[in-house]
């Protein structure tokens, strides 16, 4: 049995649950279509905590995601693969354009961000990695990706985030550019949203 045949059989087994366990379909549709936005919301929350560590984490997440999607674009053209609903009769629960199935952009983005978070905040990272896994799985359940697309996307996301993290740790030049960009942003941010000093924060309750 070829890898392609094994991938299709595994796809059939998972996608069939859309019929046999249809009570879970609303959850899977949410995960496949909308849950990815939770990553953007999470990154915004981390960013506006105004922590240096969190801001660096968000920047690394953005860089890793962009690099990962760039790799996906190239692979999608070099190794074009139709989506399952093009070549087979499937339980397709969400609409999707007829474009390259391999690798999964959702898996790349979700795992790139989740891995970046895990490298800075291990406990938080576990939660985000679980969410990334659920999103990836739901893309098979809803009929728009093969399991192989998901596995490839997850591996790309994890590897790209790890490489970006190591490069920025070891390169003083690149790390300096990242810090400079964050500092430039913060100079303008503080004019709109001034920081409260610790003395001010401590004095405020006493004044009340």
Automatic annotation (TrEMBL):
Domain Phosphatidic acid phosphatase type 2/haloperoxidase: 58-165
GO molecular function: undecaprenyl-diphosphatase activity
Positions of transmembrane segments: 27-49, 61-80, 126-144, 150-169
Domain of life: Bacteria
SUPFAM superfamilies in the record: Acid phosphatase/Vanadium-dependent haloperoxidase (SSF48317)
Keywords: Membrane, Transmembrane, Transmembrane helix
Native source species: Paenibacillus mangrovi
InterPro entries (alphabetical): PAP2/HPO (IPR000326), PAP2/HPO_sf (IPR036938), UPP_Pase (IPR033879)
PANTHER family: SPHINGOSINE-1-PHOSPHATE PHOSPHOHYDROLASE, UNDECAPRENYL-DIPHOSPHATASE BCRC
CDD domains xref list: PAP2_BcrC_like
Source species taxonomy: Bacteria, Bacillati, Bacillota, Bacilli, Bacillales
Protein name as it appears in the record: Undecaprenyl-diphosphatase
GO annotations of cellular component type: plasma membrane
């Amino acid at each position: 049995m070829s890898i392609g045949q094994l991938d299709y059989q595994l796809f059939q087994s998972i996608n069939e649950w859309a019929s046999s366990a249809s009570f879970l379909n609303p959850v899977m549709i949410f995960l496949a279509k909308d849950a990815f936005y939770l990553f953007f919301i999470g990154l915004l929350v981390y960013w506006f905590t105004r922590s240096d560590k969190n801001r660096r984490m968000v920047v690394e997440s953005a860089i890793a995601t962009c690099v990962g999607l760039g790799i996906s674009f190239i692979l999608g053209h070099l190794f074009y693969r139709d989506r399952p609903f093009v070549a087979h009769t499937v339980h397709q629960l969400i609409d999707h354009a007829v474009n390259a199935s391999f690798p999964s952009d959702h898996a790349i983005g979700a795992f790139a961000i989740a891995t970046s978070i895990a490298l800075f905040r291990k406990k938080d990272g576990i939660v985000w990695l679980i969410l990334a896994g659920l999103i990836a799985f739901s893309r098979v359940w809803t009929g728009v990706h093969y399991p192989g697309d998901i596995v490839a996307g997850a591996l790309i996301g994890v590897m790209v985030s790890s490489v970006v993290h190591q490069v920025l740790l070891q390169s003083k030049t690149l790390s300096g550019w990242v810090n400079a960009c964050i500092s430039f942003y913060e100079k303008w941010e503080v004019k709109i949203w001034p920081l409260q000093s610790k003395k001010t924060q401590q004095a405020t309750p006493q004044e009340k």
